[in-house]
Every structure is written in C-alpha cells, then in structure tokens.
Design goal:
Layout: E1 2-4, E2 9-13, E3 18-22, E4 28-32, E5 60-62, E6 69-72, E7 78-81, E8 91-93, E9 100-105, E10 111-117, E11 125-131, E12 139-144, E13 153-156, E14 163-166, E15 173-174, E16 177-178, E17 190-195, E18 201-206, E19 210-215, E20 218-225, E21 232-238, E22 241-246, E23 250-254, E24 259-263, E25 274-276, E26 279-285, E27 291-297, E28 302-307, E29 315-319, E30 326-331, E31 337-341, E32 349-352, E33 367-372, E34 378-383, E35 387-392, E36 397-403, E37 407-412, E38 418-423, E39 426-431, H1 434-441
Antiparallel strand pairs: 1-2, 2-3, 3-4, 5-6, 6-7, 7-8, 9-10, 10-11, 12-39, 13-14, 14-15, 15-16, 17-18, 18-19, 19-20, 21-22, 22-23, 23-24, 25-26, 26-27, 27-28, 29-30, 30-31, 31-32, 33-34, 34-35, 35-36, 37-38, 38-39
C-alpha cells in the first residue's frame, strides 16, 4: 500500500498482487503490481522488548529517510519508533480491531496509512490515516516546557480558542506570547487566570490580592486591589462580569461600571471549591462536626447549606456546571463520589461508585481536578495523577482514559469541546468533539467488500 499526499492518491495491494488505485475523483483502477518486501531486522527495535513484533500477521514499513519504523504487534497495535534511538520512545497507535494487512508512510513521514479490520471481527476492513505530528490522534502540542512547571495555573476560553499558563515559564504565556505585567512585582506569584469568552481579554490574580486585566493590544491594567490583600484563588467570567474569589472567601464582582464585594462562608481551599455563574461552593462543618457544602449566590446574597453523608471523606475536588445545577464532589480517599442537586428541596445527595480502576491492579483510583461542561454532559478529571479520564455524566460511563507519565493539571472549555493538559514537559490541547475524535482517529475509512 502506498499513499501519495501530493496527488491525493491511495494505492492498495491485495494478496494476489493486484493494485487498486483511487484518485481525488474517486475512480478505481486495477492492474498488476510487483510486490516488494523491505528487509526487516528485529535487532533494530529499541522497543522490541516492551512492544514485541507480531507473529502470524506481521507488517512493517520504513519512512523514506529511515528515521521512522512502523510495525504491528500481536495485539493489533501499530508501533512507530525511531530506530536510531537507544531508548524506546515509540508512539502506540490503536485503531484496528483485528488483523492489520499493510502499512505505508507519506513522503515526508508525518502521515501513516494502515489497512486492516475496523470492526470487532475480521469481516469489515478499512483504512486509517494517522497524523504522526500529533501526540495522540485527538491532541496537539501547544508548547514545550524548558523545565518542569512550578505551581502552575491554566486557563482556557469558553469557546476553546485561547489559552494561558502561569508558572509554566518565567512569564505568563497567553497563546504562546509572554504577557507584559508592569503592575506585578517579580516576587509576586500568579495564583489565578481567566480568559474572556471569546479570548479577547486575560484576567490575572496574584498572591497579594491584585486583579490585573490585559488585552493583546495594550499592557496589563490594575483593575482592583482586594482590601484584605489575600491571594486570589479563582477568577471566572459570567455574562458581562468578572468574578474573583480570595483565600478568605471574599468575592469581587467587576463589570464595566461597578465593583461589588461580598463574602462566602465555609472553608475555601485551593482544591475544594467550585464556581459557576454567581454561585460559589465551599465546605464547612455544622455544630455536630458533620461536613456540609455551603452554596452561596453572591448576586442574590443567598446561602444554602447541604449536609453530606457520614464517611464522605476529605474533599479531593468539586465541580459545578451552572446550567445542570448538579455538583460533583470527589473524596480524598476511596469513598464514593457524590452528586449533589443544587437548588432543589430537599437536596438530593447520591453516592456514585466510579467505575474507574487502575490497570493492571484493578484497584480504585482517586479523582482530582474535575471539570464538567456547562451543560453537565461531559466530565474530565485526573486519575491518580497518571491518566486523564472522560466520562458521560448522564450514563456515568467512561468515554476514554489516556495514560501518561504525569498529568499535572487540566482545564476544560465550558462548551466541553477543548481540554488543556499540562504534563511535566508540555502543554497539550485535546479536541473533545466526538465527531472530530472519529475523524482524527480514522480520518479516511474505505469500506471493503472483501
């Protein structure tokens, strides 16, 4: 099988040595073809022990410059490695469900075509086009870190078009560009970030209570200085206002004409709080020592206390999508997650036994850094700091789990379409739209009558 990306032509060789060619017009031509086998030496595999080559149905191919080798395993994975490297840094491509019959690189080595089974049996065959410039079929690297991030802060706009990171390098990065902050002293830490809905304005909160807003066309402007000078824990946009939450529970609401302040009750920790619209969720204890959620509506000045069941454990993370009115709380131990209906009477608090399990031990995992899309349909979380998990909130089913060396932090756009992931050495953007997932993972699928 050969793929010509310049001419948009795909050549498929069947077992009888015939060539079936399709061009951009969708025409098919069959003619004889000389099948040639490239030499393969198993000793060249730096990943041979970790990813052994397949046996019965084994295929391999080299890129034109010999910098990449792709081969198949017995588990129907495709391993793409650098044969010149002494360490195994291979990409593992998973898309075929059964036998893989052929592999081919594009001329520049950035695309790989694979032909094989694409259903649970071997009766439905197709072709997958892999973009090897992506770290994963649904992600792309936005920034490579020169050193490990220290106490980072991430932000993404509501529509996923813009991102920012503080603590990833010496400066605040906004879409890969350093931000000029004349009001912020060098020893001051950036403790919170927020981007306006369409990515036109960046808000920055600091450890000494400053709130700075900046646009791409001008330097940062000191918008507000909190009276208690306490660190800003959270910044978020809702409608036409910018909200800020400080470590002591102070809330500031800024719009074009006014600044309003209020106070929320309960313990506001760096991990155990959630915001949505004018709602702030924190934790407290009642007079009997039982844990309760405190739901504060800072616009209306209303507060509601919701008592949690015994053995709820310490708080690991809280997420709250305003539109669905359902908060999710993960514990800091292995007790069940809780779903809490906000704004109902009585308040429904239900245990949710997460189906997540660590591999290969099968043990329960701890969920942290949870985010839920605005409509309440999709949840993203970090599991055991070693994988990112996506779950359907309606069915409580796992949509996907991607393992990695270390997941430092994640944020998700409120529309649930983009996820920003900070690892120990890079910032990645994930495309979470289901249609785009399918297109990126199997960009070109041609069904076969065979």
């Amino acid at each position: 099988m050969e793929y010509d990306s310049d001419r948009n032509e795909l050549l498929i060789i069947d077992w009888e040595g015939r060539q079936a060619a399709t061009n951009s017009a969708g025409k098919w031509v069959v003619k004889s073809y000389a099948v040639m086998s490239d030499y393969f030496d198993a000793s060249t595999l730096s990943c041979g022990e970790k990813h052994p080559r397949g046996g019965r149905y084994f295929e391999h191919t080299w890129s034109a410059d010999r910098s990449r080798l792709a081969y198949t395993t017995e588990a129907n994975e495709i391993i793409v490695e650098n044969p010149r490297s002494s360490e195994c840094t291979a990409s593992v491509l998973v898309g075929h469900t059964h036998n893989i019959y052929s592999l081919a690189f594009s001329r520049d080595g950035n695309l790989l075509l694979s032909a094989g089974a694409i259903s649970l049996g071997d009766d439905r065959k197709g072709i997958v086009l892999w973009d090897l410039s992506r770290r994963r079929p649904f992600s792309r690297k936005l920034y490579s870190l020169s050193r490990r991030a220290f106490d980072p802060r991430l932000a993404v706009s509501a529509d996923g078009s813009s991102w920012a990171c503080a603590g990833c390098e010496d400066a605040v990065l906004w879409d890969n560009v350093p931000v000029d902050l004349p009001f912020v002293r060098s020893q001051t830490k950036i403790t919170a970030l927020a981007i306006s809905h369409r990515g036109t304005q960046l808000a920055i909160g600091t450890s000494d209570g400053q709130i700075v807003r900046t646009t791409r066309s001008r330097k940062g402007t000191l918008t507000h200085l909190s009276s208690d000078r306490e660190p800003i824990l959270k910044l978020w946009h809702s409608r036409l206002a910018l909200f800020a939450l400080s470590k002591t529970g102070g809330v500031v609401r800024l719009d074009d004409t006014s600044v309003n302040t209020s106070k929320v009750e309960g313990k506001v920790s760096s991990v155990c709080h959630a915001v949505g619209g004018s709602i702030v969720i924190s934790e407290s204890s009642d007079e009997d020592g039982a844990t309760e959620l405190v739901v504060s509506d800072v616009d209306r000045g209303a507060k509601t206390r919701i008592r949690l069941p015994p053995k709820s454990g310490s708080c690991g993370s809280v997420a709250f999508p305003e539109a669905s009115r359902t908060a999710v709380r993960s514990p800091g131990n292995y007790e069940p997650l809780l779903t809490i209906m906000i704004g109902t009477s009585p308040h429904n608090v239900n245990a949710w036994n997460s189906p997540l399990r660590a591999y290969p031990s099968g043990l329960k995992t701890l969920l942290s850094r949870m985010h839920i899309s605005k409509d309440g349909g999709l949840m993203a979380a970090v599991s055991n700091s070693m994988s990112v998990v996506l779950m359907n909130m309606a069915t409580k089913a796992i949509l996907g789990q991607v393992d990695m060396d270390e997941a430092v932090d994640i944020v998700m756009s409120s529309d649930g379409q983009k996820l920003l992931l900070l690892t120990s050495n890079s910032i990645e953007e994930w495309d979470l739209a289901p249609r785009k997932w399918q297109l990126l993972a199997t960009f070109l699928v041609l069904e076969s009558d065979a």
